User: What shape does this take?
Amino acid sequence: MLGMVAGGVTCRAIFGRHSEQLREVSAIIKSMLEVQMSEKMVSCPKCGAMNTPTKVFCYACGGILSALAIKQRRIHKQHVRAAVQAVVVLVVLCLLGIGGLVLWPRQGALGIPGTPEHARQTALLLSSFNKMDSDEMAIGRDVRESDLNGYIRHLRLKKLPFDTLSVDLMPDKLSVRVSNKLVSWSCRGYCLVPTLSRDFTLAVSGSVIIEEAALGHFPLPGFLARKSFARLLDALQGTPELDLIAKAQSITIHKDRLHITFGGD
Ligand SMILES: [Zn+2]
Assistant: This one.
């Protein structure tokens, strides 16, 4: 009997101690949860009900929530809109890039293509210009489109930073196409060569005027066209051919040929 009483007292003491500890633990957890909730939730200034931060109106009384909640909601919406816009812009740019470079590669040469024989003939003609006396030079010489394209393709281009450069002569006008291969993919016999090409249509009447210019299939606005053409001239700078053209007294364009005269009066 005495043992049972003693046992009861011990049990109560032990359980009492434990339940005290349990109460303390649950109080700590409760306070932690309250702190977390109060950090995330927004209290209604009208009725005090706790609302989630994305709510604009109180779920309990319908009153408008704090400016902070409205601001958070607006910022969230702005972030979503900006992300959607960025994705749309990226997709459009990718499509334009793929369309411009892959679907319509302007890598074909302009004008009548020239053979290595044309190239040789033109090289001889150009070197003979330097040996002529002024009377002979004043007569001038014709350079045909095929001579020019053959010369550019078979002799000159090896030293220039382009893969192709070709010209098309029209009455009073000439077109120049410069292109670079961006990359070359071949897969099971199918070869894809995206090419970056620039076209210039030039009018020659005393001076050279850029009439039209395009990057691939995209028309180039004036200032970009001039910049791009200046880069082409820079690449040709220092070549004996450009020096010779600079020395020419007159260059007239006829259909399929250039008439160049040097010296004379
Ligand atoms: Zn409320």
Summary: Residues 173 and 181 are 27 Å apart (CA to CA). The mean pLDDT is 79. Helices lie at 2-40, 67-103, 116-131, 134-139, 145-156, 222-236, 240-247. The pocket of zinc ion is lined by residues 44, 46-47, 49, 58, 60-61, 63 (CB under 6 Å).
